[in-house]
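Shipment paperwork, digital attachment
Item: protein structure file
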Amino acid sequence: MENKKIKLIDGISIGIGGMVGGGIFAVLGLAVSLAKGGTPISFLIAGLIALITSYSYVKLSLSYPDRGGTVKFMNQGFGIGTLSGGINNLLWISYIIMLALYASAFGSYAPNLYQLPVSQSFNYHIYASAIVFVAAFINYYSIKTVGTIESYAVIIKLIILISFVIVGIYGLFGNDNLNQLSITNWNSPIQLLTGGMVIFVAYEGFELIANAAPDMENPNKNIPKAYFYSVIFVILLYVIIAIITVGSLPFSAIASAQDYVLAEAAKPIFGQTGFIIITIAALISTFSAINASLYGGSRVNFEIAEDNELPHELTSKLWNQPLGLAITTIATLVVANTLNLESISTAGSVGFLLIFALVNLSGYKLANQTGSKKSIPIAGFILCLIALLALITQQYFANRKSVFISLGIVVVCFVFEYLYKKRQNSTHQQ
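Attachment content:
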């Protein structure tokens, strides 16, 4: 029986759902702490890099439609070897980091609805861990349920966020904090750039459209529209949310509520009811993002193992799902419970900036086959590298631990792949 085709609106929903997951709820306060009044500019800078990179994804998705998405593009551009294997391993680890980011956001927002009779720190760890276990159970129980939850969650969170935007813009007029957006309250240009790069993880989800490309209806028209419409929509949404947040709350209030600042930003507009509604939206968003990313992460792990870039044993199943689902779940729990938000966000941004740099480079190398304008993917490659270098430099002085963790993850991914390939080659020669 022929697979049901994905319509344009579904493709756009995949992109928006992937980006507006838990990212905006998790990293908005962090962005303001780094960029102050220039936070909307930071979101715009990060969004423009995502938009340029989406051009490479469009061309590669049209020429090499595959459910492996980014994994396929790496293998196509660089061949199956240590480079492609290392970056594909990094993609899987970056999924785990994103999962930890979403779990962290859930753990920060949930106690605002119900505080367990333990310390604040324990509340965070209990909620962050429990939601990962629940999502893993659903993934094992029924993949169809994962898709159903994601479909409803996208609609609910967009309705709530768009309502917040509409009323929030109206609420800005006459607000005493509106002057916080003036240029005098912006941090330095390098901090605006690095602020955008630390929260770059809030944009990475558009790459999920690549996995749906083989099933897209009328692909030549709909694949480009799905990428560009979803990224442009999310850029506008994030920039406006950043404007409303900075224009509604004093910086001191944003700092004290950094981990759940979007809910706090709803208070001046909607009162306590707004705080609760946005908290519920955050919980729905982060839960659906964990749910979908657990599935996506286990699929990436499976695809890499199928291409012999990870041990082939990972294609086997535990219960009714690939072994990678259990490994991804355990690794997520470890990261979410050991690293702080800034370290998780930095590691995720470093991972995806490097991945997107190489996707752009792959797009440049394959430009003749894909019909790309070479200038756009090479510009994307250079911009991703500049952004990556700026992020690492700034974080080295501000949060050195996060840099060592981020670079350590990258090195481990490539060293593991090198040793694994070496072992494979020696086994074949015997």
